[in-house]
Amino acid sequence: MPDYVHFHKIRFQMIFCYRGWVRLVYEDQGPPFLMQAGDCVLQPPEIRHRVLESSPGLEVIEIGCPAEHMTCVDHVLPLPNAGLDPARNFGGQRFVHHVAAKAAWRPWRLAGFEARDTGIGAATQDLAGVKVARLSGTPKGETVSHNGEFLFLFVLEGGAALTAAGQGAQRLAAGDAVTVPRGLAHSLAECSADLELLEVALPASIA
User: Fold this and answer.
1) pLDDT (0 to 100) of residue 2
2) Is 6 in contact with 72 (CB distance < 8 Å)?
3) According to the model, what pLDDT value does residue 206 have?
4) Tens digits of per-residue pLDDT, 49-96?
5) What CATH number labels 6-101?
6) Phi and psi for 96 in degrees, rounded to 5?
7) What pLDDT does residue 1 have?
8) What is the pLDDT of residue 76?
9) Residues 205, 122: Cα–Cα separation, whole Å
10) Buried b / exposed e across 10-41, counting CB within 10 Å, b at 16+?
11) Do the domains 103-202 and 6-101 match in fold?
12) Strand, helix or coil at 126?
């Protein structure tokens, strides 16, 4: 890929690999690595990085805050660089490479679901959280709301019906995405057995 060593002046940025694979390299994080479908990374503010190659049909989900931000070229630092510091602090955040195949599943905030936590909440000191949720039992379809800054849901697999106050019911299928405003009552029902959801929340401890 025609990429170069660069960095972003940003508050928060995550990239989730939805389809295919991509090979990346990051400052102080060792040799290039492969990010495959289901994996994700947290790109802390101003960490130098470069995209090296990707599969045909690569699709990623990227959430950045602010959406419009400055991208700068680094003409000096080669990647991979000689340093190795996986715990390095970049603007109050640590780099994260979450590998789906190694993840542990624990109960999610909705009954009948379990989720794998990418570790982004801890790495950003609760600024943002990223999880993947799936069915673990029978959903109760309870109505909930949140008091956070931002809640984004993306349907990775399967489908469900999302009902929101004043909006009626919407059928969501793989590839669909929604943002749920603060205080909006909503519920998930009619979930398919293979349902998987990507959740991005600011803050991580959204309630």
Assistant:
1) 74
2) yes
3) 87
4) 999 999 999 999 999 999 999 999 999 999 999 999 999 999 999 999
5) 2.60.120.10
6) -130, 130
7) 66
8) 96
9) 10
10) bbbbbbbbbeeebebbbbbbeeebebebbbbb
11) yes
12) coil
| 197 neighbors 155 (Cβ within 8 angstroms) | yes
- Adjacent-strand bridge partners of 172: 160
**Angstrom distance (rounded) from CA 199 to CA 38:** 13
Amino acid at 7: F
> Do 112 and 136 meet the contact criterion of CB atoms below 8 Å apart?
yes
Looking at domain 103-202, its CATH architecture is Sandwich (2.60)
- H or E element that contains 123: helix 120-123
3-state secondary structure of 20: coil
> What residues of the chain score a pLDDT lower than 50?
none
Position 97 scores a pLDDT of 98
DSSP letters for 28-52: TB-S-EEEETT-EEE--TT--EEEE
Long-range contacts (CB closer than 8 Å, 24 or more residues apart) made by 170-177: 177/61, 177/152, 177/153
